[in-house]
Amino acid sequence: MKKFRSYLYAALLMLSAPTLLAQHRDAVDTALVSKFRKEGLKNSRVMEILSMLTDMNGPRLTNSPGYKNAANYAKSALEGWGVGNVHFDSFGPFGRGWFVKKFSLQVMAPVYFSVIGYPKAWSPGVKGTHKTEAIYLDVKTEEDLEKYKGKLKGKIVLFDFPIMPKPAFKPDATRLTDSTLLKMANAAASNRSGGSRRRFAAGAPEMLTYKKWRLCESEGALAVMEGSRGSYGTFYASAATVPTDPTATGARVSAQADNAPEILPQIVVAAEHYNRLVRQLQQGLTVKLELAMETEFTKPEDGFNVIGEIPGTDKKEEVVMFGAHLDSWHSGTGTTDNAVGVAICMEAMRLLKAAGVQPSRTIRIGLWGGEEQGLLGSTGYVKKHLGERVADSVKLTAEGEKFSVYFNTDNGGGRWRGVYLQGNENVRPIFREWLKPFEKDGTSTLSLSNTGSTDHIPFDNVGLPGFQFITDPIEYFARSWHSSMDMYERAVEADLKQNAVMLATFAIGAANREGLMPRK
Amino acid sequence: MKKFRSYLYAALLMLSAPTLLAQHRDAVDTALVSKFRKEGLKNSRVMEILSMLTDMNGPRLTNSPGYKNAANYAKSALEGWGVGNVHFDSFGPFGRGWFVKKFSLQVMAPVYFSVIGYPKAWSPGVKGTHKTEAIYLDVKTEEDLEKYKGKLKGKIVLFDFPIMPKPAFKPDATRLTDSTLLKMANAAASNRSGGSRRRFAAGAPEMLTYKKWRLCESEGALAVMEGSRGSYGTFYASAATVPTDPTATGARVSAQADNAPEILPQIVVAAEHYNRLVRQLQQGLTVKLELAMETEFTKPEDGFNVIGEIPGTDKKEEVVMFGAHLDSWHSGTGTTDNAVGVAICMEAMRLLKAAGVQPSRTIRIGLWGGEEQGLLGSTGYVKKHLGERVADSVKLTAEGEKFSVYFNTDNGGGRWRGVYLQGNENVRPIFREWLKPFEKDGTSTLSLSNTGSTDHIPFDNVGLPGFQFITDPIEYFARSWHSSMDMYERAVEADLKQNAVMLATFAIGAANREGLMPRK
Asked: Where is the Peptidase M28 domain (chains A, B) (predicted)?
């Protein structure tokens, strides 16, 4: 269809009506976009996919049973739609899988209440149901450590200072304003390639924190409890801390590693509940707790990504790829981080198949594992298949040489408003064409600047075009990202549908254009 | 002090400098207000009081141990500050006390998670820890009921349709804008005296809902689970439903009543968790739950208010009163509803004592019980001590005849921005004077209109001046009112301090002015 049209355009061009000269060689196939739109807006399955990834199988901590169940679901769904060569592709050693089997924390005195919280990932559990007391580790200086000697044994230690939530005078949910988009549109390329993760106040100097951990361990605390940022019953649980001497050299051992040392059971608790316990303890009251916390480790294994493709035709060795990370944190269901991305990618694949495309290049989907532990899945994939950076130069594989472009999605469930160009000015006119069908929906911004922190970076790092979309945040950074309430309710259906249509459009555009996507 | 100044002003008046004619006879005693302000802003104890009412003793469901502990705390604190005649004053039969001893709801399959929720007040518990299955009562018509016959026995029934939270594009926290305050300032008196409580969609017609309850009972369900409004792990738990035939006549029996019929255990669950379970069940998955839910009833007793006073001097039979309800719902700690009100009142009493006032009239504090069950404490107090409405006329007691005014506070922890006049135009010039010291802090609006739904209404109903303050909502209606997260963190310290100073100012103004407060 596309080819036929190209020939037609060429023929028309020879007939030389001057207005037709305006037809860009990367002009979108509007008939195909209409097909995507019809299927993607009227018969969308994106919310069903999302629910399968979150409600039914999530959360999806890498190598956990939830991750594997979701991967199996994704594989069979993709296969069901006719996507080819769907397989699990190892990205190398990851460490242990882990999951929660039971968690209940009850305050039995001075006043009964049931605590909102959860184990940190890869935390050990405790055997049986423990009745014990809480103690608040109110340590501001090293001298303060002394007064807790002999007092922590068998106790649950409240480890941090309370974080007081503040009233929300700004809306939690936002869309990008014209003014913000304009700044992005006018931004210059940035050197910040890797991007920086958001950081939150650690509460205490690193060495003092390390000594607090060591004290809890040497004194035989039963478990360590941390108050979470967040409010209103939402909390943020990531990986358990492996206490590490900040003066030591060498790589830090992560909690999932095969060789991780034994650590104390670690619990994160909603701010209001944690703070209440601290206030009760500061008032001199005895806080009695009842803790049931059962977690299970699975054997160390390689991590894996889920890969599938629509084989290309005349240029099938050349690959256009899109993807999102399948893994998540464990206390919610990892909806906006990043089941929405996976659902968009899967739905885009379904739209391409439903439209019966026979692309020139191969269109491949990559659902990554281990993103939350440092982009492990995408990094492993790039190294294994596409190339690597050695010292200051990049060595691409044969497959890498023929690789066209990678589109990533991982910034929550909001509507895409454009594309970060990652400093690659060459792609601007191409993306400008592909955005045309979406301009009327507010999606038209191209920003030369970078965005980081997710799975397009390993591609970008070896000089391959890797992009991420400019996305309306909705409640992403305010409330859902990494939170216990990153659940199905956080998704905005209309936005996901639209994004899937747009992704299919970008993929087929890249797959059928004359050349590979231009590199920087 | 006040009297001396009045004489002085009178003397100055006779000397007749025309500008002095502007001195209103209700002008505030600015030296005294300075004292209140100094003590109330610099040595405030309002947050300590609040923490004692919430963290240490709350929640305070009427007649529960928490209510009694908080009442004992309030009594001893007031006595400690020199407040006189502090006592518990019965407001008549209330019913049973009740509290939660344990609640844990675990989803064991298809995917483990720990559910955020709580028993509804006065719900029975279940014996031991039950492992059972969930079933979703997807009933839209009476015919739908049939398909659940024989299927509910021993199960936990998901009773309601899911309520989907939406992204919050408006801020949760607000202060009243000038534009809103102006509308209030320009409002006419309203006939709506009793005020209306906010109502939320019931989800199904009343008769169908009743039949659903009866089905659950007759089929022997283990417990009924309802999804809550709210989001992000916040839920709203009020009294257990006593299923009542909507065609039956006569008063409804409430769950706390001595003669309440046996009802099923009832659980309220955070929207995201409830909805996830519904989606799993709709997908055909088996949802296995583990429920521990222990509640305890105490014997039926009279309810009581906490009353205390600073005795008047020359007009000690005349009473100026302020108050707030001490009781709360049970799933949070009842901070903005209404420990903040109690803390403001107690702190105002402390400020009056600290300033060493010797008021002309008696200044009395009333901390009410049973407000959440229908203003029972304040209604009982008014009837017992002040008067009652018989048919269309009001019959005041001798004490009622000498009663001056009641100030109530019960609209969350925000700053007071003025006063609702309840249609009483006569008090406008008086309040205008008393507001003067607070105008610069944005507190200057007098609205002729009414506000309802709380404890000034019983006073207003018998024609006694009863007022409630215009209050910045902060997150009151958006998130904290009646919610599981109505906890200490919701209070705004600076606002509570300011309100306490203002309440002390109004109280002493009313206590020392020439006459009783004018009635409507």
From this structure: 305-504
